[in-house]
C-alpha cells in the first residue's frame, strides 16, 4: 500500500506538471534512461527529452487539459507498472481544439529510494476496417 500511495502521488504530480506545461516538473519523474513510446513520432525515444517536450508544449495555448481515469497500480519492492485511460484536451496555438482519450501504461523503478518512470507507452486503438484510421473518437 505504501508503494502504491507513493506512485499515485508521483503520477498526480506528473499530471499537474503536464497541465501547467512545466517541463522541469514533468522531467523530474523520469529515470535518466527512460524509454517512451509516445503518440507522436518517432517510434521510440530514449532518455529524458526536455527539449522535445518544451517544443510540444509550445504548440498549445494554456491551460492544457490532462485527466487520468481508472488508474490501476501494481507495485513490488523495486518495480511497478500501472495503466490508465487519459484525456488530453486544449487549444493549439493555431486555434485548433483537441480532445482525445488514449491508453497509458507506465513502468516504474525505484532508484535511490524514489520511484521514477522508466517506461511510458501511449496508444490509441485503430479501426480494423481496412482504413487503419486511429480511433481518436472513442470515449470511456
Q: Which features does this protein show?
A:
140 residues, alpha+beta, 6-stranded mixed sheet, 6 strands
Quick structural overview:
By secondary structure, the chain is of the alpha+beta class. The chain contains 3 helices and 6 strands.
SSE layout and pairings?
Layout (H helix, E strand, L loop, with lengths): L1 H19 L2 H5 L2 E8 L7 E2 L3 H8 L7 E11 L3 E13 L5 E15 L2 E10 L17
Parallel strand pairs: 1-6
Antiparallel strand pairs: 1-2, 3-4, 4-5, 5-6
Q: What would you note in describing this structure?
A:
By secondary structure, the protein is α+β, with helices and mostly antiparallel strands. 23% of the residues lie in helices and 42% in strands. It has three helices and six strands, in the order ααββαββββ. The chain has a six-stranded mixed sheet. The mean pLDDT is 94.
Class per helix and strand makeup: alpha+beta
Task: Report the average pLDDT across residues.
Answer: 94
Helix content: 10-25%
Radius of gyration: 15 Å
Number of strands: 6
**Largest sheet at a glance?**
6 strands, mixed
User: Can you write the helix and strand succession as a string?
Assistant: HHEEHEEEE
Give the CA-based shape. globular
The residue ranges in which pLDDT falls below 50 over 5 or more consecutive positions are none
Q: What fraction of the residues are assigned to beta strands by DSSP?
A: 35-45%
Amino acid at each position: 500500500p505504501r508503494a502504491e500511495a507513493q506512485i499515485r502521488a508521483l503520477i498526480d504530480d506528473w499530471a499537474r506538471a503536464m497541465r501547467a506545461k512545466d517541463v522541469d516538473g514533468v522531467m523530474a519523474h523520469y529515470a535518466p534512461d527512460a524509454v517512451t513510446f509516445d503518440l507522436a513520432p518517432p517510434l521510440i525515444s530514449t532518455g529524458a527529452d526536455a527539449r522535445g517536450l518544451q517544443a510540444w508544449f509550445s504548440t498549445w495555448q494554456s491551460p492544457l487539459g490532462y485527466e487520468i481515469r481508472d488508474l490501476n497500480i501494481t507495485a513490488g519492492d523495486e518495480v511497478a507498472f500501472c495503466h490508465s485511460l487519459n484525456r488530453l484536451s486544449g487549444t493549439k496555438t493555431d486555434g485548433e481544439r483537441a480532445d482525445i482519450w488514449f491508453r497509458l501504461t507506465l513502468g516504474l523503478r525505484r532508484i535511490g529510494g524514489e520511484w521514477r518512470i522508466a517506461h511510458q507507452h501511449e496508444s490509441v486503438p485503430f479501426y480494423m476496417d481496412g482504413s487503419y484510421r486511429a480511433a481518436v473518437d472513442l470515449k470511456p
